């Protein structure tokens, strides 16, 4: 029985994306009791338009976020900012509030990535998400830390382990809190 659900949102839509390599590594590393899914609708979400109606793809995203006990965001930086696809997905959750009090882990895996990482921490604060200190990781020079489609750098492997442990801990805690309130 899978006790804990983690949903990963990846900010790169590239087929051979380093961020997907990182997320695949985490999915393999996740213990048996964790249902680790990668959201696959990022590239097909309509652009946020602040309308009253909810497109089906947006409802699907919101349902998946609600069902998850923890969210893991893994993203590059584009032009010193947050990739548009990821920002668009997050904007769709502002009024529906799926990320309010939700445990979120943030991994920015990029060439540099400092600015997108900092911007995302502000965005997650705006969304009232819970981002534990040990669930934040900036991996700069990401491409040098991969080999043959796998994470190969020792320090990066250790840091990823720490983030995964942190988000599972936070997700478990939040799930226990929710069940004690009902
Ligand atoms: C349009 C574009 C803009 C980029 N701008 C930045 C940037 O501002 N900062 C940075 O750290 N990397 C930047 N990069 C490099 C990405 O970090 C690098 O391509 C990374 O591998 C992308 O993640 P992915 O492998 O998961 O697709 C940029 C890449 C592209 C394609």
Automatic annotation (TrEMBL):
Domain named NADPH-dependent FMN reductase-like: residues: 4-139
Listed GO CC annotations: cytosol
Organism domain of life: Bacteria
Name the InterPro entries for this protein: Flavoprotein-like_sf, FMN_Rdtase-like_dom, NAD(P)H-dep_reductase
GO molecular function terms noted in the UniProt entry: FMN binding; oxidoreductase activity
- Gene3D superfamilies to which the protein is assigned, alphabetical: 3.40.50.360
Q: Membrane-spanning regions, if any?
A: none
Identify this protein by name: NAD(P)H-dependent FMN reductase
Q: Which organism is it from?
A: Chryseolinea serpens
The organism that produces this protein has a lineage beginning with:
Bacteria, Pseudomonadati, Bacteroidota, Cytophagia, Cytophagales
